[in-house]
Amino acid sequence: MSLIGRPKKYRMIRQDPKVSFFSPRGRPGRPDQAILTMDEFEAIRLADDLGLSQKAAAGSMHVSQQTFSRILKKGRKIIADAMSHGKSIKIRGGFYVINTQPENPTQAK
After folding, report:
1. Where are the domains of the chain?
2. Are strands 21-22 and 11-13 parallel, antiparallel or unpaired?
3. Which residues, other chains included, contact 63 with Cβ-Cβ below 8 Å and sequence gap of 6+?
4. Are 39 and 91 in contact (CB under 8 A)?
5. Each residue of 73-84: pLDDT tens digit?
6. What architecture is the 33-96 domain classified under in CATH?
7. Total-model pTM
8. Parallel, antiparallel, or unpaired for β 11-13 and 96-98?
9. d(CA 47, CA 68)
10. CA of 97: how far to CAs of 1, 32, 77, 87, in Å?
11. Which residues on neighbouring strands pair with residue 97, listed in sequence order?
12. What CA–CA distance (Å, rounded) separates 76 from 53?
């Protein structure tokens, strides 16, 4: 059986997150989990933490601006769901490669 569609492109991530698990306080027992992929984490870091434009952030991740926008929207939705429902957030997985080469993130390719 063959796969239909275009193969997925690797997303470029600059670094592993320092913390890969967040849990709400005041919630007894083990809360449900929301999984945030590494590319979603990187998109949120670039757009919301560093304040880059979508064009510049997309260039940094080596994806199109439309793909970046989709990744960012999905990541924000996961975080909003986790916060609204008291879920823990685990950062793992995704289709990514860690690129440690220095690059000026304000210049889009």
Report:
1. 33-96
2. unpaired
3. 9, 11, 71
4. no
5. 999 999 999 999
6. Orthogonal Bundle (1.10)
7. 0.81
8. parallel
9. 10
10. 27, 28, 23, 27
11. 12
12. 16
Q: What is the 3-state secondary structure (H, E, C) of the chain?
A: CCCCCCCCCCEEECCCCCCCEECCCCCCCCCCEEEECHHHHHHHHHHHHCCCCHHHHHHHHCCCHHHHHHHHHHHHHHHHHHHHHCCEEEECCCCEEECCCCCCCCCCC
| Cα four-point dihedral sign 91, 97, 100, 101 | negative
Residue reference for tokens 């289709």: 95
The residues facing 90 across adjacent strands are: 21, 35
Taking only the tens place, the pLDDT of each residue in 30-66 is 778 999 999 999 999 999 999 999 999 999 999 999 9
Position 52, amino acid = L
Across the strands, what pairs with 12? 97
